[in-house]
Amino acid sequence: MTETLSSAEKSSPPKRRYAPLAANENREDYSLRFAAHSFRKWSPFVVATTALGGIAYLADFAIGASIVLSYGFTSGVLAILAAAVVIFVTGVPIAAACAKSGVDMDLLTRGAGFGYFGSTLTSLVYASFTVIFFSLEGSIMGQAFELALGIPLPVGYLLSTLIVLPFALYGMGAVAKMQTWTQPLWIAGLVLPFVVVLVREPGKFAEFTQFGGTEGAGAGFSAIGFGFGMGVALSLIGQIGEQADYLRFMPEKTAENKRSWWAAVLAAGPGWVILGAAKQIGGALLAFLALGVVGKTHALEPIAPYLEAVKPALGPVALTFAALFVVVSQIKINTTNAYSGSLSFANFFSRVLHKHPGRVWYVLVNCGIALALMEFGAFGFLNKILGFYSNVAIAWIGAVCADLVIAKPLGLSPRYIEFKRAYLHKINPVGFGSMVVASAVSIVAYFGAFGQFLAAFSPLLALVIAIVLVPTLAVVTKGKYYLARENTVAGADADLRATYTCSVCGDPYELPDVADCAKQDGPICSLCCTLDSTCHDVCQTTGPVALGLPTVRTP
Predict the structure, then answer these.
(1) DSSP 8-state secondary structure symbol assigned to residue 535
(2) C-alpha–C-alpha distance, residues 32 and 20, integer Å
C-alpha cells in the first residue's frame, strides 16, 4: 500500500546528491547498507553457487604445498585438517547471522561488540586479507602467463589485475553470471590431475604419506611443525567474510525454503573450508609428485605441478589446458577479492572521511595495492605473511563468534545486529578490546617471547583469549557499550519491509536501513547518517524522533 507524501515533503529538496556511481545500486550493491529485501532476488542455490565460485583460488594449492613441504606429511596434513575444523565451527554463526540479517562482515562486526568506529580496524584487517590474497592469486596467474605465453612476470601481474576489473566493477549481477558459467570448466579442471594420478600411478598416494618434507622435518608427527602449519592454514579464516558478502543476498528464510536456505548457508558459508582443505592436501600431493622434476621453488607454484600431473593424459595440449584452468580459477577468486575488498575499503573511508564516491572506486584501490605487492614479490614470502596475519584475523573472528554464540544467547548483548551509527557507541571495549588484547599477546608469542611452543600455537592462543574475554568484558561492563540508545523504530512488531524516504538524500530505504534523526527531525538512511560530519551524534542525547508514515511497503 502506498502512502501519499505531504506537500512539504514533496517540495523539500534533498540535501545530498550522491555521485552517479554511488547512487547506482546495480553497481553499488548496497555496499555500506543493509541488503534490502527487494534487492535479494536470487534463489538460495544461485547465492550459494556464486559464493562458492569465489573459492576457486589456487593459493590453496600453494599453501598446502608450502605447509607439507616444510613440515612433512603427518604434521602438515593434520595441521590443515585441524585448521579446517576451527574455521568451520567459527564460520557457522557468522554465516547464519549475515544471511539472516542482510549485512556484510563489517556491519556484523559493528553490532557484535566492536562499536561504530571500533570496527574500522577490522575493516582494514579484512581489506588486507583481500589484498594479500589478490596479490597471491594474481601472482599465480602471472606465473601461468609466463609459462604458457612467455609473458614477463611484471606484465603478467598487470594483466592478471586488469582482467578481473569488469566483473568486480559491475557487482553481484555480473559476478553471479560469471561464477555460474565458469563452474563446470573449473570443476573438470580441478578433478582431472588427481584422476590421472589415480589411474596411472596409484602407488604415489602411499608414497606421499611417507613424505618427510624438504627441510628435514621427517614423516612423523611434530607438535611444533603442526602448530606452525596450522597457523598458516588459519590465515584463511578471514575467507568467511568474503562468503558473507554474498550470503547477505540470501532471500528471507520461510517455512517453504527452510531446508534449501540452511543448506545454502552452510555450504556457501563455513562449507567452503571442506573443499579448501581438500585442495590444500591435493596441492601438497601435486607438489610432492613434481618435486623431482621442477624443483622446490616451482613446486610451490601451482601451474608447474598441475602441468606435470596432466601431461600424461593431455599430451601436447596439456600446457594450454593447464594455463586456461589457472586463469579461470584466478578470475573467479580475484573477482571476489576485488569485490569484497571494495566493500571493506568503502566502509573504512566512509567513516573516517565522511565521503563516499562509490564502491567501484575502491575496487581500483584494492587492485592497485595488490598489484604493488605482486611486483614486490609477495608470493616468495607466503608462509611468513600468512603466519603473521593469522594472529590478527583469528582474534577478530573469535571475538565476533563469541558475541554471537555466547554473549547474545546469554542476554549479555542485544540479540539483534545493530549497525547504524545513530544507535552505537564509537568504541565497544567488549569486542574491540578483546581483539586488541588477543592480537597483541599472540603476536608477541609468535615472535618467540613465550618460547617456541607458544610461538607455533600463537593463533590458537589468540582465539582462546578472544573467546574468553568477550563474555568476561560483557559482564564487567554490563553490556552498556553495545547501544548508545535503544532503537525504538525497528522493534519486534515493526514492519521491516516498510520503506521510508530519507530526509537527507530523498531516496527510499527499508526500515532496517533507517534511523530516527534528531538533526533532520525525521528518518535518515544509514549511509547519510554515516556521512554527516556536523551532527556530533546529537541523536544520542535527544529523545526518539517519529519517522512518520512509510512511503511504500516492499512486496
Answers:
(1) S
(2) 16
Q: Distance of alpha carbon 296 from its chain centroid, rounded?
A: 31
Q: Are 101 and 416 in contact (CB under 8 A)?
A: yes
Coil, strand or helix: which one is 104? coil
What pTM, to 2 d.p., does this model score? 0.84
Asked if residues 37 and 510 have their Cβ atoms less than 8 Å apart, the reply is yes
Helices (H) and strands (E) in the chain, counts: 24, 5
CA 361 to chain centre: 19
Rounded Cα gap, residues 515 and 421, in angstroms: 9
C-alpha 472: how far from chain center: 27
Question: What is the signed CA dihedral for 509, 354, 101, 524, rounded to 10 degrees?
Answer: -30
538 and 46 Cβ atoms separated by less than 8 Å = no
**Cα 227 to Cα 452: distance, rounded to the nearest angstrom:** 10
Looking at residue 149, what DSSP letter applies? H
Query: What is d(CA 17, CA 45) in angstroms, rounded to the nearest whole number?
Result: 36
Residue 394 reports pLDDT greater than 50? yes
**Do strands 522-525 and 552-553 pair parallel, antiparallel, or not at all (unpaired)?**
unpaired
Cα-based angle 530, 335, 396 (whole degrees, multiple of 5):
55
Backbone angles phi, psi at 270, to 5 degrees: -70, -20
pLDDT higher for 380 or 104? 104
Picking from 272, 258, 337, the residue whose alpha carbon sits closest to that of residue 100 is 258
DSSP, res 42: S
Q: pLDDT grade, residue 40 (50/70/90)?
A: confident
Report the C-alpha dihedral over residues 144, 150, 153, 157, rounded to 10 degrees: -60
Residues in the chain: 555
Sheet holding 508-510, edge to edge: 508-510, 498-501, 552-553
